[in-house]
C-alpha cells in the first residue's frame, strides 16, 4: 500500500474495551507498522458537545490519561506515530468556523448519530455545538490533510459530512484539502449480554484494563444460546457472543473449530466453553496489562502530548494559512 496520511481519534470518555480493539485499534496498529504517517487525536472538545461544565473538563483530564495508557498498552507507539490533544491545536476551531459556512443546519440535523444522541439523552433542542460535531470532526481531518480515516461503521455519516464540506471548499476555492476516505475495516464485537454492540454505557464490555479475575467473572456470566437448556442440547454458534470472541481472539483456531463442533452436537457444557474463552482472553490481555503497568509508572504522558502538539502545530498553521489565502482573507 502506498503510504498515506492517516487521522483518527477518540473522545476521552473512559477506558477502551475489546470492541475498540477489534473495531479500530487493531487496524491502527497495522497502519502504524506499515509505516504510514498516522495521527491520533484525543478529541476532548468533542466530549463537550453534549454539555459543558467544569466537572466534565475535570473528568476529561482523567479519561485522557486512561486513553493514552490504553493506546500505549496495545502497542501504539509515539515514536512511530503522532498522538495529540485536540484542544492543544486551537487552529481547529477556526477551520471549523469556516467549515460551518459550507453546510446547512438541516443537513446536520439528519446525521443519524446526532439523532440518536438526541433521542437517547432526550435533547429536544440541540446546541449549536452538538449539531456542529461532524463539522468539528471534518476540521480535525482537514487540518492535518488526512487522506484516510480509520473509524467504526457508526462514524461513516460523519465522514460523509466531511467529504461534502471539503468538496464544497475545494470546488469554490481550489484544491486545498484531500477528500478524506473512511477506512472501515474492523468488525463489530457483540456485548457480553448478546446485544449487537459492546459498549461501556450498556455495561456489557470487557475493558482492556480489566484484571484476570474480572475478565473471568464477566465471561462466566456471558449470554450464550438461550435455546439451549442442557449441555447435551445441540447449541447455536451463530449469534453466540462466546464464539464471536473466540473467532476474534482465539490463537488456536483449530481448537475453536473443535469447540464449535462439540457445541453444535451438544457434547460440551457452557462452563468448559467459557473457561476456555476466559483463558483465551486473559492470554490476549496479559501483555497489554503488563505494558499498561509499565507505562503508568514510567511513561511521561504529558511529554507524549507535548511532542504531539509540537508536531501538529506547524502543520495546522500551514493548512490554515492556505485555507485563509484560498478564501481571500489573508
Ligand atoms: N467522533 C469520533 C468518535 O466518537 C472521534 C473523532 C473526533 C474522530 N474527531 C475525529 C474520529 C476525526 C476520526 C477523525 O469515535
UniProtKB/TrEMBL annotation:
Its EC number(s): 6.1.1.2
UniProt keywords (A-Z) are:
Aminoacyl-tRNA synthetase, ATP-binding, Ligase, Nucleotide-binding, Protein biosynthesis
Family indicated by similarity = Belongs to the class-I aminoacyl-tRNA synthetase family.
Report the source organism.
Answer: candidate division WWE3 bacterium RBG_19FT_COMBO_53_11
Reaction(s) this enzyme catalyzes, per UniProt:
tRNA(Trp) + L-tryptophan + ATP = L-tryptophyl-tRNA(Trp) + AMP + diphosphate + H(+)
What are the protein's GO molecular function terms?
A: ATP binding; tryptophan-tRNA ligase activity
Q: Which GO terms describe its biological process?
A: tryptophanyl-tRNA aminoacylation
Cellular component aspect of the GO annotation: cytosol
Name the UniProt record assigns to this protein: Tryptophan--tRNA ligase
Amino acid at each position: 500500500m502506498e503510504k498515506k496520511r492517516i487521522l483518527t481519534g477518540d473522545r476521552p470518555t473512559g477506558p477502551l474495551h475489546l470492541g475498540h480493539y477489534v473495531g479500530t485499534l487493531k487496524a491502527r496498529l497495522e497502519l502504524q507498522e506499515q509505516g504510514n504517517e498516522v495521527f491520533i487525536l484525543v478529541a476532548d472538545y468533542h466530549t463537550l458537545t453534549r454539555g459543558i461544565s467544569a466537572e466534565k473538563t475535570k473528568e476529561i483530564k482523567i479519561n485522557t490519561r486512561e486513553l493514552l495508557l490504553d493506546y500505549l498498552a496495545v502497542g501504539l507507539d509515539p515514536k512511530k506515530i503522532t498522538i495529540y490533544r485536540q484542544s492543544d491545536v486551537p487552529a481547529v476551531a477556526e477551520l471549523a468556523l469556516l467549515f460551518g459556512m459550507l453546510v446547512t443546519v438541516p443537513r446536520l440535523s439528519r446525521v443519524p448519530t446526532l439523532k440518536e444522541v438526541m433521542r437517547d439523552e432526550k435533547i429536544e433542542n440541540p446546541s449549536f455545538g452538538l449539531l456542529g460535531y461532524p463539522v468539528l470532526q471534518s476540521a480535525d481531518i482537514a487540518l492535518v490533510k488526512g487522506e484516510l480515516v480509520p473509524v467504526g461503521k457508526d462514524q461513516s455519516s460523519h465522514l460523509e459530512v466531511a467529504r461534502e464540506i471539503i468538496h464544497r471548499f475545494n470546488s469554490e476555492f481550489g484544491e486545498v484539502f484531500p477528500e478524506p476516505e473512511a477506512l472501515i475495516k474492523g468488525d463489530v464485537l457483540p456485548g457480553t449480554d448478546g446485544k449487537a454492540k459492546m459498549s461501556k454505557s450498556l455495561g456489557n464490555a470487557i475493558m482492556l484494563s480489566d484484571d484476570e479475575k474480572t475478565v473471568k467473572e464477566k465471561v462466566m456470566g456471558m449470554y450464550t444460546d438461550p435455546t439451549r437448556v442442557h449441555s447435551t442440547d445441540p447449541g447455536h454458534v451463530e449469534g453466540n457472543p462466546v464464539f464471536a470472541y473466540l473467532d476474534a481472539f482465539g490463537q488456536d483456531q483449530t481448537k475453536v473449530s473443535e469447540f464449535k463442533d462439540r457445541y453444535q452436537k451438544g457434547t460440551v457444557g457452557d462452563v468448559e466453553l467459557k473457561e476456555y474463552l476466559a483463558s483465551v482472553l486473559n492470554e490476549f490481555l496479559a501483555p497489554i496489562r503488563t505494558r499498561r503497568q509499565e507505562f503508568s509508572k514510567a511513561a511521561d504522558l504529558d511529554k507524549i502530548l507535548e511532542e504531539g502538539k509540537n508536531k501538529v502545530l506547524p502543520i495546522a498553521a500551514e493548512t490554515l494559512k492556505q485555507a485563509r489565502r484560498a478564501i481571500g482573507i489573508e
